[in-house]
Amino acid sequence: MTPWVIDAKDLDLAVLSGFRKSLFHTNATVDRFLGLTNGSVILVSGPKGFGKTLLLKLKKDSLRRKGGFHLIPVDQMVDRPIGTPTIFSLKDSIDFLQDEQYWRNVWLISLTSTFIKHDKGVNIASLIGNLTSPSLQSMMNREKLTSACDMFDQILAMPRKDYIYAYNDLRTYFIPAFRAIRSPMAIFIDNIDEYFEQAIAFRDNATLTRNVAHSFWINAQLGLANAARELNALNNHIKIFATIRQEVFQTTRKIDPLAMQLRASTIELSYEHDDLVEIIRKNIGVEVKENLVEPSAPDEIERFIGKSNLTIEHRYTNEDESFEDFLIRHTLMRPRDIAALGGKISEIPPSRRSVSKIRDTINSESAIVAEMYLAESRPHVADFSIEVLFPLLQTNVINRDELESISDQYDTAMARLSLVDKKELHVFCDLFRLGLLGVVQDNKKTEMKTQFFVRLGETALDPKRCLPHSDIYLIHPIMYDFIGKFNAKFINSINSLNIVGKGRPWREITDVYFVIKADVVKYSEIMADPDLADTFPKEFSKIVASEGGSLFQCEVSSGDSITIIDRNWKNASRAFHRIDAKLQKSIFKRRLRGGGDSGIIRFDSNESGKPDKFRGGALRTAARIEPVSNPGQLVVTSRYKEFAQTFGPADFRELEAGELPKARALGGQFDLAKSDSEPSIIERLFVFRSK
Q1: Where are the alpha helices (DSSP H) in 377-444?
Q2: Mean predicted lDDT score pLDDT of the chain
Q3: Of 30, 29, 14, 23, which Cα lies nearest the Cα of 64?
Q4: Orientation of helix 134-141 relative to helix 160-169, angle to 10°
Q5: Distances (CA, A) of 622 to 283, 564, 595, 689
Q6: Residues paired with residue 71 on neighbouring β-strands, in sequence order
Q7: Which of 222, 243, 283, 499 is positioned for an S-S bond with 3, CB 3.0–4.6 A?
Q8: What is the C-alpha end-to-end distance of the chain, expressed in Å?
Q9: Do 617 and 318 meet the contact criterion of CB atoms below 8 Å apart?
Q10: Which residues lie below 8 Å from residue 83, measured CB to CB, with a gap of 6+?
Q11: SS3 536
């Protein structure tokens, strides 16, 4: 079985059973849908990329294995329309095409005629002789015309007068003939959404589709859903299974009185974080042994990427995430995205699957996911231009005033391009309803601020004024590298305090800790002197305690090393310099050297309730800077500088390559990796310029 399958269209009958056994992620609702023969659930709903086609194919395979049903289509897994809609007679049918009941009737004609043609007990010739619609007579006469989707397309192209005749034929002849069918039959219809999306996307260029309106996309699916539900209730021997985009159901609440009944006939696909983790594990489970980093490891993810790569450090906040959290955060919570990213990681030779390679692969592939998703969404965002918007985005975290300013600039630029009067285009509403723009909300359960992005399918795809009021708006992580292609400044301005992602906590500057790791220069010389070696531990601890007593954490470890942690950067820095000054004046005549970083620190508490066992990327980075610092010098990262400056003016000077002889310079920055064999750790480094 091949892992990381992106599109269910690639799965035919020969591999479907193997996929269901090895890779298909299910639950009780899905199992019930696949197992029942006479259930009332006939519609599969979900956003694009959620596996609707796969579930439809599995349902057909289930009925095939049970036996007793004539399955339509016969030679394919599902029936889907091909090409673009041939709606020629818009002028004659404009009022019909805006009416959902018209689309329901077209589907009723399409479906009943298809079942009648597949029922061997019907006298087709006699039926045709009674029909009043010339087009319908021609269609019923064509033996090879057995697809409901082909029927649907041709009925849409009927002139108004012929459609009226066809509707009368439906009521007079097709419905009675349909009621009389006694042979169990089931039809499987897919991709009606994509059929009209293609037409809408290119309606300005394609002659045959220039009359296709966005409302057709909604009405075609609603019409199919209502027709399927009605016909299933009309004849217990017939089953009509179809896929419907979940966004359509958001519209039905406003326009369809049978919305609740439709939802009762629908299985709605959705995935939580744990579901996606399980999908990752199942795909790894069918990887060949030769493509695993540690084939004998007990855990699937460890087998796939290796124990040393189980956590990924966020390049901007310096915070750790598990591999699976990092991967899922760079998706739209769709199985399709999981397969796309997982497949690209699988293509990395096992010997080269380092943290940096995995992180870079996920970042670059998620940008492709974003690009393709926006291309898929083009029919639903008519006034959306990435070429205009992306250069205006300077950072991934935008406050309300900035958002309104960017929106105004966007409207102005679009009006200039289209040579029309300026109007409100609500570009950020488009991003929000597509799940690409989030907000920060108060979480009443946890009493914390939480990041919120709408789930795909939660909002209809046509409203504009849908953006909730918020002080802070967030760009989805899958957009970063994509935006970076249009605006290099964006990548360099990613928020360094918060990892952006659905459901993650929102942190304020008051949650940040400043961390300093320091040690004594030439400590080995002290240890080589018996008199100094005996007195140093006690005296050094006394000096540190005298300056660090008021700090959140200030302790000596490993003889000459100090760890300083505090929420106030001035107090932390001041403690370092005072300890350095006292040590220099002491009998030891030595200097400290130190490295500083800032970020989120996690810790446990010991039996006495004091913080213990500190963890966080800031500790690691500070420890990397410490050995390359000069005596008496505290060298800090750009994060330390940035967060320090949020408390008020603070004058930091950036260091140049020659000022840190022990550090490896790289393009005006510094590589803190310990050796060439270790992935690069690039940082800009600073010292505080006291006045």
Answers
A1: 386-389, 400-418, 427-433
A2: 90
A3: 14
A4: 60
A5: 38, 10, 5, 19
A6: 186
A7: 283
A8: 67
A9: yes
A10: 153
A11: helix
Q: At 245, which helix (H) or strand (E)? A: strand 238-245
- Contact yes or no for 11/274 (Cβ under 8 A): no
* Comparison of pLDDT for 686 and 16, the residue scoring more: 686
Residue 576 has which token pair? Answer: 């370092």
The 3-class SS string of 477-495 reads HHHHHHHHCCCHHHHCCCC
What are the tokens at 424?
């409100």
What phi and psi values does residue 206 have, to the nearest 5 degrees?
-95, 125
Mean pLDDT along residues 236-253: 88
DSSP line for 602-643:
EEEE-TTS-EEEEE-HHHHHHHHHGGGSPTT-EEEEHHHHHH
194: amino acid identity, one letter: E
Tokens read off for 68: 């007793």
CB 566 within 8 A of CB 514: yes
* Residue 136 to residue 592: CA distance in whole angstroms: 91
Strands 561-566, 652-654: parallel, antiparallel or unpaired by DSSP? unpaired
Residue pair 171/178 in contact by the 8 Å Cβ criterion: no
**Rg, Å, the chain Cα set:** 32
634, β-bridge pairs: 594
Residue for token pair 């505080």: 688
- Residues 6 or more apart in contact with residue 262 via CB below 8 angstroms: 43, 225, 226, 229, 249, 252, 256
The residue assigned the tokens 């620190």 is 601
CA distance 504 to 201: 35
The residue that leads in pLDDT, 256 or 666, is: 666
Contacts 24+ apart (CB under 8 A), 406-412: none
Rounded distance, CA 624 to CA 682, Å? 11
φ/ψ of residue 515, rounded to 5: -120, 135
Cβ burial, residue 84 (10 Å; 0-12/13-18/19+): buried
Stated pTM of the model: 0.88
Q: What are phi and psi of 516, to 5 degrees?
A: -130, 130
Q: Residue 685: its pLDDT value, please?
A: 96
Q: Say how far apart CA 243 and CA 225 lie, in whole Å.
A: 9
Per-residue model confidence as pLDDT tens digits over 507-539: 998 899 999 999 999 999 999 999 899 999 999
User: Is there a contact between 476 and 437 (Cβ–Cβ < 8 Å)?
Assistant: yes
Beta strands 437-443 and 664-666 are unpaired
Angle in degrees, CA 494, 499, 500, rounded to 5? 85
d(CA 362, CA 477): 11
Q: Coil, strand or helix: which one is 589?
A: coil
Minimal CA–CA distance to 399: which of 427, 439, 370? 439
